[in-house]
């Protein structure tokens, strides 16, 4: 899939290449990872895996393993790791060089060192999962289904301990408060005051009564608050009656925005919402008719007393 998106490769020098791909992602780091041509797994492990599959001892897929009645290759399983180690030993003994690396201008000592390094890893860790990240698989016990992961201490690794701690506690954007008129006159400037937390920008959509977007704009936020002023030439295009505003608070650090939506009324003339005066409100007290229950209770007590006297 990656190969299909590669447009070109330009060699800058002996250690640097440029890769051009027809691929987009909102995170530039994902694009860089997508364009990486070299596997994070050592090439000798890949070569040993390919040889094991071509010899029919294992399969790369579940369906292939089922149809050929062989194991589905997994570098974490000790048995498969031992198989990979045997192929690495065979490569070492025969001074094998993969076809794709024969013109790499590397000495035989380089290839021997690579085989020795991976063989030693498998012997020490009992698995063949080797990569180039900050952590490594220290051990795996299939019986107890236990995996142990440890940090790989390397002074040359660019990211130190605690580099990514800020991402452990995600700060989502929050719309704390919004102030705006519930009724505006057609052609009147609409002012919206917004208070936020953890937000870098505001995206709003002004929608008329027919569901059409009248105006949309993204605005940067300074000090967690902003005032949106929608000019009269835009509110002039709103329909009489109910219209809608949608507001998104956006953070550059997290993908999920906060969302607010509200309706407001547009009139031809200046109008205010009807209000109720406190004096006009009547309160009624819920009075329980206790007298209604007194007579039945007295009657029951009388019957109980009569029965006691009669049968005692």
How would you describe this structure to a colleague?
Among the domains are: 2-123, no CATH class; 174-267, Macroglobulin (MG2) domain (Immunoglobulin-like). Helix content is 29%, strand content 28%. It contains 8 helices and 14 strands. It has a 5-stranded mixed sheet, with no helix packed on it. Strands 7-9-12 form a 3-stranded antiparallel sheet. The longest helix is centred in the last third of the chain and has 21 residues, at 291-311. 14% of the residues are buried.
Task: Describe this structure in a few short sentences.
The chain has helices spanning 2-5, 28-34, 43-54, 62-68, 78-94, 108-125, 232-235, 291-311; strands at residues 6-11, 17-21, 58-59, 71-72, 135-141, 146-151, 174-179, 183-185, 190-197, 201-207, 213-220, 225-230, 241-250, 258-267.
Q: What key phrases describe this protein's structure?
A:
alpha+beta, Immunoglobulin-like, 312 residues, three-stranded antiparallel sheet, 14 strands, five-stranded mixed sheet, 8 helices
> Topology as H/E string?
HEEHHEHEHHEEEEEEEEHEEH
Q: Could you give the count of β-strands? A: 14
Radius of gyration: 37 Å
Number of helices: 8
- Helix amount, in percent? 25-40%
Question: Which band does the percent of strand residues land in?
Answer: 25-35%
Averaged pLDDT: 86
Structural class: alpha+beta
Largest sheet: 5 strands, mixed
Largest sheet, order of strands side by side? 8-14-13-10-11
Terminal CA distance: 99 Å
């Amino acid at each position: 899939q990656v190969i299909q998106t590669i447009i070109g490769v330009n060699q800058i020098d002996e250690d640097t290449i440029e890769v051009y791909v027809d691929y987009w992602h909102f995170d530039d780091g994902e694009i860089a990872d997508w364009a990486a041509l070299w596997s994070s797994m050592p090439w000798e492990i890949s070569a040993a895996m390919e040889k094991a599959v071509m010899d029919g001892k294992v399969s790369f897929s579940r369906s292939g393993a089922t149809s050929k009645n062989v194991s589905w290759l997994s570098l974490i399983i000790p048995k498969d790791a031992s198989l990979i180690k045997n192929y690495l030993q065979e490569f070492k003994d025969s001074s094998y060089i993969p076809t794709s690396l024969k013109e790499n201008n590397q000495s035989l000592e380089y290839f021997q060192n690579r085989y020795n390094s991976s063989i030693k890893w498998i012997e020490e860790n009992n698995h063949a999962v080797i990569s180039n990240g900050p952590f490594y698989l220290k051990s795996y016990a299939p019986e107890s289904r236990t995996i142990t992961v440890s940090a790989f201490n390397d002074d040359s690794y660019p990211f130190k301990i605690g580099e990514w701690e800020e991402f452990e506690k995600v700060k989502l954007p929050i719309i704390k408060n919004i102030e705006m008129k519930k009724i505006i006159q057609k052609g009147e400037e609409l002012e919206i005051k917004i208070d936020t937390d953890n937000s870098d920008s505001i995206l709003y959509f002004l929608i008329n009564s027919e569901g059409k977007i009248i105006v949309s704009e993204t605005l940067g936020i300074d000090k967690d608050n902003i005032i949106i002023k929608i000019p009269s030439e835009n509110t002039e295009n709103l329909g009489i009656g109910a219209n809608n505003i949608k507001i998104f608070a956006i953070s550059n650090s997290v993908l999920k925005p906060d969302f607010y939506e509200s309706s407001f009324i547009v009139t031809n003339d200046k109008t205010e919402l009807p209000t109720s005066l406190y004096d006009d409100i009547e309160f009624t007290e819920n009075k329980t008719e206790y007298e209604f229950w007194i007579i039945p209770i007295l009657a029951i007590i009388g019957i109980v007393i009569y029965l006691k006297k009669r049968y005692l």
